[in-house]
């Protein structure tokens, strides 16, 4: 399972989107993150990570 977090500046404006997941999809995997400038790209990436459960692809 991956999560999508809105990253905001001090003024409260969204500046980027962060996808966060555990490597290999397991609770013991290391945390991994990827940052995006737009929400649609972040959502597509999040869905891909959830489908494959591993990023980067090996």
Overview features:
single chain; about 60 residues; alpha+beta; about 25% helix; elongated
Chain-wise SSE layout:
Layout (H helix, E strand, L loop, with lengths): L2 E6 L5 E9 L8 E6 L2 H14 L6
Antiparallel strand pairs: 1-2, 2-3
Would you kindly provide a written description of the structure presented here, covering whatever features stand out?
With 58 residues, this protein is an alpha+beta fold. It is built from one helix and three strands. The protein has one helix at 39-52; strands spanning 3-8, 14-22, 31-36. The longest helix has 14 residues, at 39-52. The mean pLDDT is 89.
Percent helix, as a range, is: 10-25%
SSE topology string: EEEH
Largest sheet: 3 strands, antiparallel
Please give the count of helices: 1
User: What would you call the quaternary organization?
Assistant: single chain
Shape verdict:
elongated
Output mean pLDDT. 89
Please identify the structural class as seen in this structure: alpha+beta
Percent strand = 35-45%
Alpha carbon gap, first and last residue: 19 Å
Provide a quick synopsis of the model.
The chain is an alpha+beta fold.
């Amino acid at each position: 399972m991956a999560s999508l977090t809105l990253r905001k500046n001090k003024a409260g404006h969204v500046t980027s989107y962060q996808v966060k997941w555990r490597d290999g999809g397991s609770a013991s995997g290391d945390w991994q993150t990827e940052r995006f400038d737009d929400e649609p790209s972040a959502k597509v990436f999040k869905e891909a990570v959830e489908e494959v459960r591993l990023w980067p692809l090996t």
